[in-house]
Design brief:
This protein is an alpha/beta fold. It has one domain (8-185, 221-247): Rossmann fold (3-Layer(aba) Sandwich), CATH 3.40.50. 48% of the residues lie in helices and 15% in strands. It has helices at 17-28, 40-52, 67-81, 104-132, 152-172, 190-198, 203-212, 222-233; strands spanning 8-12, 32-37, 56-61, 86-89, 135-140, 177-184, 244-247. The protein has a 7-stranded parallel β-sheet with strand order 3-2-1-4-5-6-7, with helices on both faces. The protein starts with 7 loop residues before the first strand and ends in a 5-residue tail after the last strand.
Length: 252
């Protein structure tokens, strides 16, 4: 498949989990991928995997919570890879705690990394996308946007992603820029493994409990989210914009 031939994709938080799977999927389908993480060293393994399979990828270090840093690195990406057509806002962290015990610093950090970073990257990306009258922005929300015990900060940030997505779709639509979000349910990643450890459970046990509450009776894999992101980033989804697609095995 080569639906992303001649396209340049930027994936943030791409060193592991859903971000890494998305970077690999877009590259497999022809995109030149900027693997963006906090440091270039963190993303280099994923970029190297892509190159070993014949794809095009470079690793870039950037604190996406810093707008100035984002603008600088996006300019480098455009110069070195030849453009910017697809942005996947995936960078995110958790700092879970019950609301009454949550430090203000953990609230601020999670909102900044999960939500403000998406604002920063989208604002930087749209300057290129508007000029070329083409662009695809896909941001990662979460099922937690509907509310999740111990995640007031994360839930608020991921709900914010949905509001940001709907608004950017309205404002950027006239320039042929599609803006959508994907809200995963329980996906087997390092982040959910850390959540398991936080509540005193082994990752395998935590996944089994989640699977029992899911109609498909299993948890999701990063590659399954990457497939949905790839659909929204492609021209098959050319009339899809402003949407948040929940990918959670049928959970309610």
């Amino acid at each position: 498949m080569s639906r992303f031939t001649d396209k340049v994709a930027v994936v943030t938080g791409a060193a592991q989990g859903i971000g890494a799977a998305t970077a690999r999927r877009l590259a497999e389908e022809g995109a030149a991928v900027a693997v963006v993480d906090l440091t270039a060293e963190r993303g280099e393994a994923v970029a190297a995997q892509i190159r070993e399979k014949g794809g095009t990828a470079r690793a870039y270090g950037c604190d996406v919570a810093d707008l100035d840093a984002v603008e600088v690195v996006f300019a480098r990406i455009v110069e070195e890879l030849g453009g910017l057509h697809i942005l996947v806002n995936n960078a995110g962290i958790t700092r879970d705690n019950l609301f009454f015990k949550m430090p203000k610093a953990d609230w601020d950090t999670v909102l900044t990394v999960n939500l403000t970073s998406a604002f920063n990257c989208a604002q930087a990306a749209q300057t290129y996308m508007v000029k070329q009258r083409y662009g695809k922005i896909v941001s990662l929300s979460s099922r937690s946007a509907l509310g999740n015990r111990g995640q007031a900060n994360y839930a608020a940030a991921k709900a914010g992603i949905q509001g940001l997505t709907a608004t950017l779709a309205i404002e950027l639509g006239p320039y042929d820029i599609n803006v959508n979000a994907v809200a995963p349910g329980y996906i087997a990643t390092a982040m959910t493994a850390a959540t398991a450890e936080r509540v005193g459970s082994a990752p395998e046990e935590h996944q089994q409990l989640a699977a029992e509450r899911t109609p498909l009776r299993r948890v999701g894999q990063p590659e399954e989210i990457a497939a949905v992101v790839a659909f929204l980033a492609g021209d098959d989804a050319s009339y899809v914009s402003g949407q948040t697609l929940y990918v959670n095995g049928g959970a309610r």
